[in-house]
Structure formats: C-alpha cells, structure tokens
Amino acid sequence: MSSSNEKQPPEWQEVQLKMATILENNSFEIWKERSIANRRVDILAKRAYKNKTYYIIFEFKHYENVTGGVEDKFLEQLRDYLKLFIERELRRKGFDHVSKNYVFIGYLVLSKDYGIYKNRRKNWRKNKLFPEDKDLESIWKRNLYLFSSTEKYIRPNLESIGLTFYSQSTIEDFTTKEI
Length: 179
What we know:
Layout: H1 11-24, E1 29-36, E2 39-49, E3 52-61, H2 68-93, H3 95-101, E4 102-110, E5 119-120, H4 134-142, E6 144-149, H5 154-159, H6 171-175
Parallel strand pairs: 3-4, 4-6
Antiparallel strand pairs: 1-2, 2-3, 5-6
Helix pairs in contact: 2-3, 2-4
C-alpha cells in the first residue's frame, strides 16, 4: 500500500499523539488510553517536579460544533475521571501524603471547534462537589486544577501553575547569524 493511499488518523488523534510526544520530551511518564476504574482516559501523564507529583488527565475532543451543553458533558466526564483517580490515590497513599505531595490536573483539549471559549481560565468551575467526603473535597479544593482549551494554550496554562517545559536547542540556534 502506498503512502498516498494510507488513511490519515483523525485530527484529535494527531493532537493526542503530538501532546504525548511533547510530554515525554519534558520528563513526563505517559500512558495513552489508560484505564481508570473501567473507564478510559486519552492520556494520563505523571511528572515529579519541585517535590510534587503532578498527574494530568487529558481528554481530547474533536467536534464540528461544540455547544455549551456538549462542553458541559465533556467536563462532567473529565471530573468523573479525576474523582475516580483521586479516590484511587487516596486509598493507595493516604490523605496526608496526597494532600502534601500531589497535584491533579484535568485538561479538556478541543481540537477542532473550540466551543464558547478557546481558552478557559483555570478552575472556572470548581464548585463543592463532594460534601459527603471531606478528604476528597479538600483535595479537590486545594490540589486540583481544571483547564479547557485548544492545543495552543496547553503549555502556557500548565506553566501558569508552575510546571515548566524544556526548550531544546537546535543546531540552527547556533548557526544562524543576524545580518
């Protein structure tokens, strides 16, 4: 089969693969299509940085027309994944360890139509969700960030909460001269 006949992967999958590569190149451990409590997340990423362990759950969506209602459904799905993951970590590591050392980030990436906003500010919708579970509510309030944007804003959003990304030098950085 020639390369011209090969089917191109969907745009959301290209964005997902590109993001996985960027994360790997910036010292993240990544798991694509990771299962959490019988649910599948697009990317789960982990990085230890400045005495903290950062976990990021990425969901990539590619729709022609993202309405406010559709975006709400995507965010509800992301919140559910985060809740399940945080509960798992609380069972494994305990509240004291998780509250002091872990940061959880939920990131909805809209790869085609961006809905109402191209870039949502962090934590625009972080209400009290778990009044029956004090530990989960505390982690949710203090150790969690939520984002929704196009791929263009991922890096600046993550850097805004203290996660830095490396800029790799290329040979062109040293050989080009200004005239």
